[in-house]
Write a structure and sequence with these properties.
The protein is an alpha+beta fold. It has six helices and ten strands, in the order αββααβααββββββαβ. It has helices at residues 2-18, 57-66, 83-89, 112-121, 131-138, 201-215; strands spanning 39-47, 51-52, 109-111, 141-144, 150-152, 154-155, 159-167, 174-183, 186-194, 232-234. α4 (112-121) packs across α6. It starts with a helix and ends with a strand.
């Protein structure tokens, strides 16, 4: 009992010392939320390897259009498309385009979400391994779309790339011919908003360099160990 009384008394003494001379309770420090700092910049990336695109969302929309939305869902049976239809569906075409794919004067782009993912995956290639730091950098910038969720491509034309791919896994793979657009020469002007307290203009440029060489964009990119397409440098 004496030990309990002493511990209580010592606790009271410590609290009394923390209180001021006028017996006022100690007020905890106020939290300080800094003023939002946000800057904007434009960054041009230029392809140093051809860009191959394949709009997988087209298949998702076709599947969604088959479901009725009520009752039990069944595995959808997708109508078979011709090779020309598959090729046209592989483009990321802006909703503001006056021409349907694969018209040479159509407005084509890359999903802004894919470019942002490319940049964020590149953080680890810079040598930064701390997850907290990686998360902070990844949340300190975002890339803005041009239109229709896309960053628009500036290019001097495209060709139809046809090559076999293996569909399936293990011993059940089936070779099929894929027809996809290939842009030999391309560039994109990126509009980036970022927090200058965390990242500088030059650091974002450095991150873009790593993203272009070690990650890449769209199909057959460096990240997948193929490295044939999708690489870029800073323009």
């Amino acid at each position: 009992m004496e030990k309990v009384k002493k511990s209580k008394k010592s606790l009271v003494n410590r609290v009394a010392k923390k209180e001021g001379e006028n017996n006022e309770p100690v007020v905890p420090k106020k939290l300080l939320i800094p003023v939002l700092c946000q800057a904007r910049m434009e960054l041009t990336i230029e392809g140093d390897r051809p860009l191959m695109v394949n709009n997988k969302m087209g298949v998702a929309w076709r599947i969604a259009s088959i479901y009725s939305g009520g009752g039990k869902t069944q595995k959808p049976h997708l109508p078979e498309l011709s090779d020309d239809e598959k090729y046209a569906a592989a483009f990321y075409t802006s909703s503001k385009s006056l021409h349907e794919a694969p018209h040479p004067e159509g407005r084509y782009g890359i999903p802004v979400s894919g470019i942002a993912k490319c940049f964020r995956k590149a953080i680890r290639t810079t040598g930064i391994t701390d997850n907290t730091t990686i998360g902070l950098i990844g949340k300190s910038f975002f890339i803005m779309q041009d239109e229709s969720g896309l960053c628009l491509l500036d290019h001097d034309g495209f060709v139809k790339d046809s090559r076999p791919v293996n569909i399936g896994s293990g011993q059940k793979t089936v070779p099929q011919i894929r027809h996809r657009p290939l842009f030999p020469h391309w560039s994109i002007v990126l509009k980036i908003a970022y927090n200058p307290v965390v990242l500088s203009h030059d650091q974002i440029g450095n991150l873009a360099q790593h993203a272009g060489q070690y990650i890449g964009l769209c199909e057959l990119r460096a990240e997948k160990g193929q490295g044939e397409c999708g690489g870029f440098v800073i323009g």
